[in-house]
């Protein structure tokens, strides 16, 4: 890594109507450096990135941006890309029905005699992917590739237009650990070429794996920039939150041995699916307990949840609720039997983005807030305000569109929606994905409160620390079957990893 400054943003401010999103923020990146950009939701990270990539414009007479030795003020993302600044976001901006080669050189294809030189394009694309450490058939459709390879294509595409700075905003959120390693190896190769990366994530472990330095923002202001080796996790989180984070990191659900003898609310026996994603799943979920499901991507965690919730009826085996055999034909039947499900795809399956907080929250209980097909807005708003208060949802009002809330507050609305149905079992699939560390702590507290009310929780998470902090019991899945079970003090990240690796109980 060079000490030469590639990007310097000095005293950047950005004001929206009634909100000052950035207040004289300064930010710099060196050539060949991986710079972590950290902060809670609303800290100003996205606004700063959007200014850098030309999506927003800094306030008039607000500071300056210097990139590669010259003053810049990009008016569009295309202009920023031409300067050498390329963003790679969580939602990939690619064409799935085109080949890998076509995606890499989309709008920038090599030509011969005025026509696209397909042979040269495929050769250059293959070389571009090999430089990132990936050997793949570039003539194959992008849609047939795993997410990690698609991310590599995004990187190769950026490099094809001579990117000097990559911006990875939550680029790893849909990747498993092995896929993250592939992406990080590519980033390290780029470092050797002097290409810098701004890395934004809510996953703390990734910051320590790949970043050289980290810049922290809070409430639209610069807090600090330090080498990562000088920022232990407790210090980093405390600076992000603006308070001592030791209680947040070190808290752990108290182990209650009595729960081992509690009534079995839900049980699945020898569940198998035709896709071979599930190969004989056996689980018991007891009343009032938090049962965690651990395992790598593809281990069968979400598939198990969908069988229980009636979202996948193509299975063999048995599902029992309160010792009665059930085979839900739809999620609607499951909801009527006291089940609730929070999908991992919050944006795609969890919220109705252009509807209000009130409409989102009361969607499954419309029969309670309407009469003769007409919604009783007074009653709907009363219920919504009650949950806004109980769940500490930060929103201007119950009539605010849910898309205007932070990820953490959107998740609280979804949780409130299901709690309003008075469930016996809540299934949470990656409930803290894409939300900041402070909001994660609040969600974990809510899960603990739910179980204390006697509601059972099936808690699926790729974040092992979350399972360690919040579960009474953890079932470890691998290749569609349960390979280990941990209880109480035996629940640890090491023991979970051992069970995954060894494929047997520890």
Q: Which strand order does the major sheet show?
A: 6-9-10-3-11-12
Shape label: globular
Q: Estimate the strand proportion.
A: 25-35%
Give the N-to-C terminal Cα separation: 42 Å
Distinct helical segment count = 19
Helix content: 25-40%
Tally of DSSP β-strands: 24
The low-confidence runs, each spanning 5 or more residues with pLDDT under 50, are: none
- Mean pLDDT value: 88
Compute the CA-based radius of gyration.
Answer: 24 Å
Biggest β-sheet strands, sense, barrel: 6 strands, mixed
Structural class determined from secondary elements: alpha/beta
Structure description:
It is a single chain. The chain has 506 residues and is α/β, with parallel strands linked by helices. Helices cover 34% and strands 26% of the residues. It has 19 helices and 24 strands. The strands form six sheets. It has a six-stranded mixed beta sheet, sandwiched between helices. Strand 16 (315-321) and strand 17 (324-326) form a beta hairpin. Helix 5 (147-160) packs parallel to helix 6.
